[in-house]
Write a structure and sequence with these properties.
Blueprint (H helix, E strand, L loop, with lengths): L3 E4 L4 E4 L2 E2 L5 H21 L7 E5 L19 H7 L7 E5 L6 H4 L36
Parallel strand pairs: 4-5
Antiparallel strand pairs: 1-2, 2-3
Length: 141
């Protein structure tokens, strides 16, 4: 890629001379995540106001490695995406189906959601309620 830029009038980024909207869905999601990461780094490195963490929901799920021209898009973009967090100055939560490369797994805390069992989802499961008559009292006026 030749470079990336931000257009304050449209409020969006462009990469390789093409606006984010001109890319396919997976690349748009990846560019949005990359912009969020870059903005957080910029603020945190300069001690500007920022919450200090990122939450990215499925930034890679629709991304497919393209039949690429090596001069424009490097291979293994997904691996590079995960490696970029190794030097991230804040905290990041990435909810994603893709597994990070082994060198990232060594330094990250990975929580796998199974759909059932010990960790069925991001939020803990609700405790089951008793089946039978209501157990709470109502207040009389």
């Amino acid at each position: 890629m030749e470079g990336a830029s931000y257009d304050p009038y449209s409020g969006d980024v462009s990469a390789g001379g093409t606006a984010r909207a001109g890319h396919v869905r997976g690349m748009r999601a990846l560019l949005h995540a990359a912009f969020s990461i870059a903005l957080a780094r910029y603020c945190l490195d300069r001690r500007l106001p920022h919450l200090g963490f990122l939450v990215l929901d499925s930034p890679l799920v629709t991304y497919k490695e393209p039949d690429f021209d090596a001069d424009r898009i490097p291979p293994n973009v997904i691996d590079h995406f995960y490696r970029s967090f190794l030097a991230f100055p804040g905290q990041a939560i990435v909810v994603e189906n893709a597994t990070p490369p082994p060198d990232v797994l060594e330094h990250a805390r990975i929580v796998t959601f199974s759909g059932s069992g010990a960790r069925p989802g991001f939020f803990p499961a609700r405790p089951s309620t008793p089946t039978g008559p209501e157990t709470h009292r109502t207040r009389r006026e």
